[in-house]
Queue: 4 jobs
Job 1
Amino acid sequence: MAMENTCGPIWVFAEQAEGRIQDVSMQLVGKARDLAGALNVAVEVILLGDGMKDQIKFLFAAGADRVYLGDAPVLAWYQPEIYTGMIVSLAVEKKPEIMLIGSTCTGRELAPMVAARLKTGLTAHCIDLNINEDKILEQWIPAYGGLISIICPENRPQMATAAGGVFPKPAMDESRQGEVMLLEVPTELAGMIQTLEVVHREPESVPLESAATVVAGGVGAGDEKGWRQIADLARTLNAALGCTRPVVDEGWAEHGIMIGQSGKMVSPELYIGIGLSGELQHLIGVVGAKVMVAVNKDAKSPVFEQVDYGIVEDCRTFVPLLIEKIKAYRKRHAATYAGRDGQDSRDT
Amino acid sequence: MYRIIICVKAVPDPKRADHIRIDPVSKTLNRSEAPLVLNPLDKHAVEAALQIKETTAGAFLTVISMGPPEAGNIVRECLALGADEGILLSDRAFAGADTYATAFTLARGIEKIGRFDLIFCGMASSDGGTEWIGPQIATFLGVPVVTMVSELTETEQETWKVKACIENGYRLMQVKLPALFTVTRKLNSPRSLSFSGIVRARKKQIICWSAEDLGVAENMLGLSGSPTGVSAMTTRSSRRQVEIINGTGEEKAEKLVQKLADAGLV
Ligand SMILES: Cc1cc2nc3c(=O)[nH]c(=O)nc-3n(C[C@H](O)[C@H](O)[C@H](O)COP(=O)(O)OP(=O)(O)OC[C@H]3O[C@@H](n4cnc5c(N)ncnc54)[C@H](O)[C@@H]3O)c2cc1C
Ligand SMILES: Nc1ncnc2c1ncn2[C@@H]1O[C@H](COP(=O)(O)O)[C@@H](O)[C@H]1O
């Protein structure tokens, strides 16, 4: 275990859903491990759930030195009052230096409540974290054409959220050991607010985060019809469909498929961005794509500085053409594509 | 009768906000270029309150915003939509506030308004976009909060049931009023301004409160009341060497398909 220093440990809140620790939480534990080196402090994880004991080994393997476990039926679902209360009282006692939370729906509700109760700062949707020479956490976010680092110099803990995919999957070292501390859990739910039910639907298509091909549309689609063409292209390519924020604002697509700082992070082999300007808040969400393509009617669009292939065209005429050519190509190479045409035949 | 408070933010028009840049000297946002408009998601918060007013025995709707004097325009817009009272928290001392100091100031403003049953916020602002303000106001006021509300399922009693978005699904929450909800676009379709509403709103007075009116020490407000600050800025170099594909539309499409196929990506 790391030597404890004058400052407190680095904390990660490990979110679980249906008894499984979320990927983003594992990634944050990995990142915390990196940061802990610079501060020479321990990585500690708070895990709240029901029947979570067998998951703890993963947290140790990812870099945790200590796990505070709250294990009780009442914690199976995120319960705002109990979760906040348990984290806050433990933080008051243990004085962590840093607290990291995933930018999930739960994390985005929990983190600001914890920060307000601890009277400390919180930075949303970070895309990088590092410790500077003053041993302060720099929390990087895209803003207005560049990146800015936010710091919380005096108040503790320094709190930040980051989305899944911002930090890599940690290297798992199964030989790592750690300490488990059991937390006392209130036996009953408090009165003001309760989670009564949590319903998960099966996602209909390829999840954006793990898709090999992503087609993303911007507000340049022009209207609902233009947007549907882009959706058609995604279907033709068997790709996951993503969008920029103005597309959500226009009501063409749901918030859940927005790519970028405040949406999803993707890391496909192929990314095709159509009718979008390549603003950092969007493209920061495209990590390590092998090939990037942009279609934009404005030859001067900044998106063309950030892709491998650029096509200057009006997407409303070009996208149908592209769909046609893809289908034609596949027909020519039908033998290779035998059995892979399921998606194609549906819309012909 | 329900007392409903709606928090609304004046944001640089998201359709024109691309030109806002960071001031390299003061390290604060240079907001002067794009005109201020009502934050798009806050329209859904106002609509939620208006619908409650229309479908229950009665409700009194107070709109509150913290911002520069020009933010008064969006408060007036909410009055024109049907809110009963508009409050603008505006003071130089509020400037430069991070989310913590903003939520703290708004919570003090709401305390000054007095009794309330419901507070509605948008899920996120288009410029800050943290989603923190709602939950932090609720925390400072000591009331429960549900974020990303998509449906008000049961609203008859003192205890409400609401549905809120989560990844691939929803959660059903039971909440005792007074409570704060942040709303998503799914909740409703906001109405548009009516001419008669605009005329009516013109006669209404917007209440302006300063730091002194709130009775809060200046070191709790604005930049000095903010735990966080900007420490550094960089530009990102994610440049790739682009190859522009030329030809007629058809040729471009064909060439692109070929290139993708060569890379094994079709
Ligand atoms: C705090 C914060 C967080 C944000 N988070 C996100 C986020 O997570 N994800 C996100 O996407 N955005 C986010 N944004 C918004 C982001 O800054 C940009 O405003 C947004 O990404 C721009 O979307 P766009 O490219 O579709 O629109 P625009 O920037 O308006 O670009 C439209 C493009 O389409 C082109 N075009 C127009 N018509 C056509 C046509 N017929 N054919 C071809 N091209 C055409 C235009 O030339 C233009 O380049 C955030 C902003 C803030 C302030
Ligand atoms: N300055 C402000 N004045 C009033 N309400 C605000 C202000 N800033 C944020 N809000 C409210 O908080 C919501 C979320 O904002 P944010 O946390 O900035 O994403 C907004 O939709 C508003 O309802």
Job 2
Amino acid sequence: MTSKASATSPAKQLVLRVNGLTKAYRRRRLGWRSHEVIVAARNVVFEIGAGETLALVGRSGSGKSTVARCVAGLEKPDAGQISVSGAMIGELGGCDLRALRANFQMIFQDPGTSMNPRFTAAEVVAEPLVIQRIGDRSTRRARSLELMQEVGLAPSFADRKAAEFSGGQQQRLAIARALALKPKLLVLDEALSGLDLSTEAQIVNLLLDLQAAHSFAYLFISHDLALVARLADRIAFMAHGEIVEEGSIPSILEQPEHPEVRVLLASARTAQSTLAALGFAP
Amino acid sequence: MDPACESVVVVSNLSVTYQPEGGQPVHALDYATLAVQPGERVGIFGESGSGKSTLASAIMRLLPANAHYGSGSVQFQERNMLALSETELRRIRGAKIALIPQDPAQALNPVITIGDQISEVLRAHCRMTPDERRTRIEELLAEVGFDHPERIYGTYPHELSGGQRQRVVIAQAVACRPSLILADEPTSKLDASLQGEVLSLMRRLSEHHGIAFVLISHDPTVLAVFADRIAVMYAGRIVEEGSKEDTFRRPLHPYTQALISLSGRYLISGSRGTRLSAIEGEPPNLTTVERGCAFAPRCPDRMQTCSESYPRQTTRQTAHRVSCFKYDE
């Protein structure tokens, strides 16, 4: 195990190891009494070391969210192993799985739908602590306020209902909640799409600051190569359920091999040159 | 010269307020003014809550029941949209003004075939025999880039990809050759390469048929590709308006300047770990009526007068307008 870890990221502990992950969905054909099988992920293999960011990139429908959902334990893979900090997710159940869950947290695209709108901000952030039975009411509240401060939300917001926050503030709350259990890995499934430019910039900076402070590992799922280049150490590119290319950011940006990678990169470069033609000065 | 004579649509001093149940009124549009010429492509640039979607819905009279029109008017081809009856509106919507929504998956009915859904638009507005209609639908599907329109005709939305569904919605929108199409973040759910395809398709249709477009987006790369003129919205007002070149190259309003400095984020050369420049502060709270400029609390060039009254609109060069005290003479 340790030798494998040093192979990818020297002197770093392995946080996530995904080996041969395969997941298929059965979809009923409309009007037919038959099913078709869609293989959303096929033999997916990757590793993430402590403090490292791996970007799982691909076009819509390439299977990246399926991998994220399997890693977060929201779906059961058909085959393959996922181990977080050395413990296999698939072999655990009940209490052991719940304990392991503290090590990895998920942040979704639409923060508004991932929290109870009637909860106050402090209650949203404290929920993982309640589930894991950590602390009493007052220590949990103190910890919530601390976490809110850490993600840039004033403690005076603590008793406001989650629904009253703006999209960017809700995403901050979702991040604070994810941090509550001091996880080793954060799975960010398109967590930045749909945000406004100004909010997005604030959240990107927050993610960078948090990683520098706590050396979290991020599994960052996105199709936005410009953001990926800022946030990630490595890219694993998915197409049709398989990882078709993997490597460091410079190697993929400079020498893309798979046609799908080239297509996405070409579009990102077009956007960039359109702006340059208009004299945008970064 | 009265701009209303030649414009497709003229929105003047339009204010819209939402009254949530048991909540405070939200001032979504505040004296918004915009004129669109025939065949012109106008981009509305703004962030969420700036009122850009409300503006589009207000033009089509599609606001929800809890919305109230305050001041102002909407003139569409010299008709006062705010005074029309539902029957008259039905004749305009879909035929003369069409809408391309953000999420095609929600705009299409999952249990009706693509052909029948486009047919619905034609049946409502154009006199045609069923055979003519079928031919027309296949032409439309070919026009939006389907290689085998006859195969797409009988499929259901779930059998198509996101990009294909957006093409179907575009075919629906252009079916009756409208003079104006309102597109609300039409590409924000698509990945970068599909986004480019959809934008060039819309641009081609606009040029071929002389359809004016109002495209709403928070993404400057989308507007840079598609629009000729840009209107920047903040807190329900249009704070700056001008040609694409003027607005993007020589932005006047501090908010536009800040937005443009944020677009360094689209450069793929940004190296790992470098922070992005950000606009500090939160988007404006629309439930309180501020006397001054809504951007003042976040503005680097804030002056005493900014929080006391709202700046008048100043015109710089030709048709580059800005509402900011920095340019007030």
Job 3
Amino acid sequence: MLKIEDLRVEVAGKEILRHVDLEINPGETHVLFGPNGSGKTTLLMTIMGFPGYEITGGRIVFKEKELNDLPLNERASLGIGLSFQRPPTIKGVKMRQMLEICGKEAEKVDTMAQALNFNDFLDRDLNDGFSGGEIKRSELLQLMAQNPDFLLLDEPESGVDLENIALIGKTIERLLEREIKPREGKSQKELKRERKKSGLIITHTGYILDYLDADIGHVLMDGVLCCSGNYRELFKCIKEQGYNECVKCAV
Amino acid sequence: MQRQYEDKTALAEKAKEKPATFGGDIDLDTFSPETREHPYQDDPSAFSDVEREQMLKAGIDLTGKNRAGTFVQKDLSVVHCNTSQEGMEILDINQAREKYGWLKDYWWKAVPVDMDKYTSRAELHQEHGYFIRSLPGTRSIYPIQACLYLGEDNLAQDVHNIIVAEEGSELHIITGCATAPHVKSGLHVGISEFYIKKNAKLTFTMIHNWAENLVVRPRSATIVEEGGLFLSNYICMQPVATLQMYPVTHLVGEGSTARYNSILIATPGSELDVGSRVLLKAKNTRAEIIARAITTGGKIIARGHIKGEAPGIKAHLECKGLILSDEGVIHAIPELEGYRQDVDLSHEAAVGKIAREEVEYLMARGLSEEKATATIVRGFLNVDIEGLPPELKGEMDKAVAISEESLL
């Protein structure tokens, strides 16, 4: 689905990603760890295609298509979706209208909003006065409407209260086709094999992992993916030893 | 009665050369003061397709559908006037003056006749205008529409309108100003005096659809009594040479409210000097002035003035401007004046370009850059107006949508 080869990225003339190789297959969800400033958000923003994240080397390939020179909207059309950490407020554009923009299916908006207890926000200006947790729900709702094949989630649990974190977790699980739901005529194993949705999730606290399973974890240190493996094992190590342990490997 | 009218004319004579406080000075003699009379039309469908279309762009629907009444003045002639709802009155102002002796007490009582050369001209050259009144306790379901149309090139149109919402009544008006497609230049001076009685509500939505070389100088003022509400919406999105107006509302009754919303677009060559002023003179009065200005190359001066002179008042002024071309200018001039300890006056002004991060946000959801920009501009113009009936909101949205097409 996504293949990144020897990626180097500069932001405002400063090299942030120095060497990144990453491959995410259809149906896989990867978790990205790393200390503040290591370049995690930069990697997500570069995959999405934000101007200002200048690729100085290497390439990003998605569904066999090189993304390097494609604008944001064309990457979105190819099936990449990103949940924003701090999305801007757009006055006069209603939440409902945004969902119609994302999904082009106006009739489904109310049903989708219900899943995230968000109906009361549909006629409000986009992100206007939303709390941290409301922003997260708004972003996930937009992704639900957009229905991308590949999800980029930047700390989906930050600022979310305990009551809503399960809801956020469940929604992401659904977006990634990872819910365990008995389906007639098909085993869970078959469903798993048929799964197409993939994702790359940044988490600091790891709370989201209480509600969501992933496949592989990576640690990004100083612009280099220095470690990959079992995401729970990695997280446990980071929790106990901090990123000091990773420094040893990131030379 | 005649005496009172004559006194006003004498005052106007003295102000003939008095320049206005704002806006470029206009040589009024370059416009023709006369033209032929147009015949009265009983049936509004008798208007030409072109006229109907031009009027429709200014919110005037000559089918009369969803309207409580219609007034149309073409050049210097009243060509149609009717009302279909009991309790709502629409008359040619000249007829109204003959019919109602008491109208002298409303004539130049809100707007001073000697304010400047334009008010003076409106008195000395006045040709019609409308009188609209809602009788006590009546409520208009559909709006009344009034159209001032310019069909002759280089003509000066000077009208005087008086609007009275009697005690406890509710009145909605749409006024559209438009020109024939061949009209390139002209002068429009419109005096509008609004009187809102105790606990009455008036919404006034004005849509301007002028021509490139038109000079426009409206002069309006409103007096609101106890518990009354005045809601004024103004839309000017089409080219105009120069437009200057600074309507004022006097909140003289306790607990009265005024709200002004303006949507202004200056295309290259247009100069708009538009403001709204509210004088809060009574206890517990409220005011809100909101302006949205976009320049695609023209100049906009967006003024606003709130003056709080009584206890317990609250008022807010907001001006937001988008500059979509380096040739354009937006100059916001908000003013707040408080004369009491317990007044609550605030203002908020912001002028700039479209935020890049907003465009990118929408692009990340799949919109092209052009569509993202258009969506943001549309949102910028989409002001939620508290207290505006849905039918009127619909008319405003329609007018904005028509203009957006040419803008974007």
Job 4
Amino acid sequence: MHHTIEVQNLSFQYPDGTAALRGVSFVIQPGEKVGLVGPNGAGKSTLMLHLNGILRGQGQVKVCGLPIEEQNLGRVRAAVGLVFQDADDQLFCPTVFDDVAFGPLYMGLPPDEVRRRTAEALAAVAMSGYVKRVSHHLSVGEKKRIAIATVLSMQPEILVLDEPSAGLDPRARRGLIRLLQELPQTMLIATHDLRLVAEVASRTLVMDAGQIVADGPTAEILYNAALLARHGLEMP
Amino acid sequence: MHIHFVDPYQTGQSPVHRLNPRAKLVLALGFILVTAAMPLGAWPVYVLLFSLTIATAVLAELRLGFLLRRSALALPFVLAAVTVIFTTPGTAWLKLPLGSWAISVTGAGVVRFLSIAIKSWLSVQAAILLAATTPFPDLLVAMRAVKIPRLLVAIFGLMWRYLFVLADEALRLLRAREARSAKLPTSPLTPPPQGRGMPLPWQGRGWGLGSLLWRGQVAGGMVGNLFLRSLERGERIYAAMAARGYDGEVRTLDTLQT
């Protein structure tokens, strides 16, 4: 049984010299739902881009037992479903169907399988009626759900979400929380919404200035006011 | 806030709407080619072609005002051909002295300019009719069916998709500028009231608020800003495509909406 994500001593510097990640190490087991919290600029988004090989730093990153290297990139990207902060960046095809079908199509699956997976993914996010719609006419909440569907159709082992509840009204946010609770995938959720973390994630990582400063059960971390205050956060 | 009106597609159930998108694309392209190939000054032919576009608009249940207003978009581009009035050889209608030279407006030149203007206008009408009766994703499928290179079609798709996003961003920048274009009646930068009460655009001291120069400078900055934002967005979109397995080859599953 492999770890879903295994990061050992990962460091990364941007081209202009700023150190974004400094010796990050953690392990995520299959089935865990983990929250990743921290102030702006802590390196959460940078860390996420390392998990599917878009950025490469020093240190080791293993996904489902596979080290991230050129020859493994295809399988790594099929195993890690990355959902970006701005849904508009992720919905780049003319129709919703094209967007959700993109992942399986590029995995080389036959057309019937692609259609089946697309239908399943849209059903999983309760957006089945949106198949023929055009992305830019949708609301923010709808776009975020479709963005999740676009990675679900690849049937990844882990979903990595960057600020999923940002910009959502309370109703859409409640719908999203319910969706995240229902989906069976392993998850890593980077967010400022500590209440979402409390409701969805059993484990929380706190990141600050490129390092992991705390790693433990959500109940312990989110109710440790001193720890949160030290890293620019507040109790939910 | 959202810009919906930029999308030219008009929903409808007319016979033209229900026609196969590939047929519509080929017909529209054919019409434009024929229009371009017509000789100069063939006025009866232009009238015939115009009646074709009007008939199609009526059949598609589009408002004629919509078609005529949108096709007026062609006219500014036609101005590029205005020099043709002066350079075509032929009998001169009037001569304009310019220093030691004289440029002449020739009859043949005017005929040529009008022909170009009318042909452009007709071609734009055909394009508008196509876009108004066919959802854009279907147009892309039709383009691939007539063997337009896949990479080019993919670029059209991305361009159309992000034109709306760009328009929204531009709208937000314009609104932000307006929100900061305040002018108090007692400000030293407000020009003194003229006889008719309306200050002229270039008045105001130097870079004063509301002056044309200031607004031009701000507009230039906004265009540069939009360009940078688009560049960065392009990087993020590429990261999203790579995250879902994009490998440089364009692959699609062609399904028509209608």
